[in-house]
Every structure is written in structure tokens, then in C-alpha cells.
Amino acid sequence: MSSQVTIVTGRKNRGGGFVLSGVAWIVGILFVLPVLWMLLTSFHSEEDAAKNPPDIAAPLTLDGYRAFFDTGPWPSIANSLTASILSTALVILLAFPAAYALSIRPVKKWTDVMFFFLSTKMLPVVAGLLPIYLFAQSVGFLDNIWLLIILYTSMNLPIAVWMLRSFLSEVPVEILEAASVDGASLSRTLRSVVAPVVTPGIASVALICFIFSWNELLFARVLTGTVAQTAPVFLTGFVTSQGLFLAKVCAASIVVSLPVLIAGFAAQDKLVQGLSLGAVK
């Protein structure tokens, strides 16, 4: 009797697993399909890209990519890389000791501190745009890449502290006590003991902060001009009064998305490990 129940239960579990797998595949295809369509359109001519209904079997060409690179996107891409990488590095350097203080060595009323960090993300970004613009204008900081680095650091710091705290709370207390017995200083403990244990968590936080910084448009659009223009702002320049050149826009979007895609694929193992580490207590 028990064996029959086990067989029936196993069949139900397999059936449920197939259904969930099918749903996961459908959702994945729905997410990837627009990207694949954009990739295909980037290899079409402007005439074929503008057809309605679109012609999937249209001849492929690199004209959209040639037109994009002829516009000189490298300064904007370099600005995005600079702002994203430096702001992410600053976020990790500041969030790591803060998360340590709020998890392994909790301060008084640490829940209030965490709520304060979270409350900073509740404010609409556009609400702080005018004061920041006026301040940057008064100190001569407009169209300066360092202004974006400071803004991206402050914007990503609260979420980084929240995530790192969940990762650091999984660090065994025994290894910290062993480090303390061996006479390790706080900085040595953070660098040589805690950091190697939560490396996947740090990698996942860094990747998320990099993506947020790379994709930010509002502040970059308003606070920069030509010197500190970022890649997303550069993309908006393709929407002109002359019309929308769809093939060139798709080619530009693919090229601008490559750094994020490469970083995501390179760190996908660490990202999965890090999110799993912080998800289970």
C-alpha cells in the first residue's frame, strides 16, 4: 500500500515539475524574445526594419552598426564605464563595513538604521532633481563625470547595505572568534576572514550596482552635456525630428547593452551563489 502511495506521489511530483518547467520556459522566452527581435532588426537595412508587418527573412547587413560607430559613441561609453565602475567600487568599500556593523557587530537600534536606508529609496528620483541641479550649477559641477559618480554611489549605497547585511549574517561566528583569538584587527578580519566567505554576495551586489549605474538616464540626461555624456543619453540622440532610424537604434542598443551582458555572464555563478546565500537563513 505504501509503495502504491509513493508511486502516485512521485507521478504527481513529476507532473507538477513538468508544468513548472513549462511555465518557466514560457516566461523565459517572453523575456528573451524582444531582445532577439532587436538583435535581428539591428542586422536589417532601414527599409526592411521599417516594414509593417516586418520581414523576418530580409537580407542581413551591418549598415546599422556602421552608422552607429560613425557617430562616435566611444566617449559616451567610456563615461558610462568610468561612472559605473568607480561608483560600484565606492559602494562596496562603504557598504561592506556598514553591513558588518549592522549584522555581525550590531549597533543599537540597528532596525531604525536599516529603515532609514530603505526610506531613502522611497523618494521619487525626480523630486531631488531640481535641488541637485541647482547645487551642481552653483559649484560649477555640471557636465562633470565625478558628479555622476557621487550620485550613483549615494543612490546604490542603501540597497547595497541591505543586501550585504543579509549575506554577512550567514558568516559563522566561530571563525570571527578564532580571528579575534589570533589577534587579528578589525580591518584584517574584514579583509582576510569575512570577505572571502561572502565573495559571492559581494559579486552579486557589485553586479546589481553596476547595472543600476549603467542604465541610469534621468540624472545623466539633465546634469550632463557633451563632456560627461553617458551611453544611455547618447542613445536618446537617435530619436530626432527626422524620424526614428530603427535599425541603427537597435544596433546601438545592442552595443550599449554588451558591457552589462558580459558582466552578467561572467559573474552569473557568483550571482546565483550570492543570492542563494542571502536568501536562506
From TrEMBL:
It is found in: Cell membrane. Keywords: Cell membrane, Membrane, Transmembrane, Transmembrane helix, Transport. The chain crosses the membrane at residues 18-40, 81-102, 114-133, 145-164, 193-214, 245-267. GO terms for biological process: transmembrane transport. GO terms for cellular component: plasma membrane. Pfam families: BPD_transp_1. The keyword Protease does not apply. PROSITE patterns: ABC_TM1. Residues 77-267 form the ABC transmembrane type-1 domain. It is a multi-pass membrane protein. Belongs to the binding-protein-dependent transport system permease family. PANTHER family: ABC TRANSPORTER PERMEASE PROTEIN, MALTOSE TRANSPORT SYSTEM PERMEASE-RELATED. This is Carbohydrate ABC transporter permease. It comes from Kribbella pittospori. The lineage of its organism: Bacteria, Bacillati, Actinomycetota, Actinomycetes, Propionibacteriales.
